[in-house]
């Protein structure tokens, strides 16, 4: 009689082993070896607000500086258009953010401040301005596109969808310069 409980326990372990997931062999075959899967998290509204408002603020401030420092009339014209467009996206962001109790940044993020400082000290203002604007607008296009697709706030997703074509248009102009 003593063998029966041991045999039943052994059968229980075998049954559980048979129920083991077949995921492990696939992980090993794919070379994953126990690493967690890549999870794409939706962008959080506060993070989006901070990044998008800092981008707008950088573009506006650097474009205001371009109005006085740029040598090329084309660069000054682009700067004037960017000020108008980014004042518009900034206003949309601010309006939507207030509905969510989120305020736009009043100061630049450290990376944008460093870029502004570099631009202020640049000996070749026009080239530095165009290079930085291209980089910032590429980042902005990705930010707005990602948030429009996966952001947690429907209110801010609308802002992101409206801002993306503006960023794309600015990038097109910068690439043609």
Key descriptive features of the protein:
Ferritin; disordered N terminus; globular; 7 helices; mainly alpha; 177 residues
Structural classification: mainly alpha
Q: What is the second-level CATH architecture?
A: Up-down Bundle
Count of domain modules: 1
Secondary structure tally: strands: 0
Overall helicity: over 70%
**Largest pleated sheet:** none
Number of helices: 7
By CATH reckoning, the class would read: Mainly Alpha
Sequence of secondary-structure elements: HHHHHHH
The coarse silhouette is: globular
Report the CATH topology name.
Ferritin
Q: What's the average pLDDT?
A: 83
Poorly predicted residue ranges: 1-33
Describe the structure.
The protein has 177 residues and is mostly helical. It has one domain: Ferritin. It contains seven helices and no strands. Helix 3 (45-69) runs antiparallel to helix 4 and helix 3 runs parallel beside helix 5. The longest helix has 27 residues, at 73-99. It is globular. The relative contact order is 0.14. Mean pLDDT is 83; it is low at 1-33.
SSE topology sketch:
Layout: H1 3-18, H2 23-30, H3 45-69, H4 73-99, H5 110-121, H6 125-150, H7 154-176
Helix pairs in contact: 3-4, 3-5, 3-6, 4-7, 5-6, 6-7
Short description:
By secondary structure, the protein is mainly α. It has a single domain, classed as Up-down Bundle (Ferritin). It has helices spanning about 5-20, 25-30, 45-70, 75-100, 110-120, 125-150, 155-175.
């Amino acid at each position: 009689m003593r063998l029966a409980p041991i045999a039943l326990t052994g059968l229980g372990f075998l049954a559980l082993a048979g129920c083991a997931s077949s995921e492990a062999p696939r992980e090993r075959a794919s070379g994953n070896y126990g690493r967690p899967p890549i999870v794409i998290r939706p962008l959080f509204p506060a993070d989006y607000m901070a990044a998008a408002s800092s981008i707008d603020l950088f573009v506006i401030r650097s474009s205001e500086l371009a109005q006085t420092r740029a040598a090329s009339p084309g660069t000054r014209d682009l700067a004037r258009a960017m000020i108008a467009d980014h004042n518009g996206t900034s206003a949309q962001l601010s309006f939507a953010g207030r509905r969510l109790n989120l305020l736009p940044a009043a100061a630049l993020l450290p990376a944008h401040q460093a870029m502004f400082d570099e631009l202020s000290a640049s000996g070749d203002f026009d080239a530095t301005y165009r290079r930085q604007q291209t980089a910032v607008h590429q980042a902005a296009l990705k930010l707005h596109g990602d948030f429009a697709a996966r952001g947690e706030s429907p209110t801010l997703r609308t802002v992101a969808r409206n801002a993306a074509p503006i960023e794309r248009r600015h990038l097109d102009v910068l690439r043609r310069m």
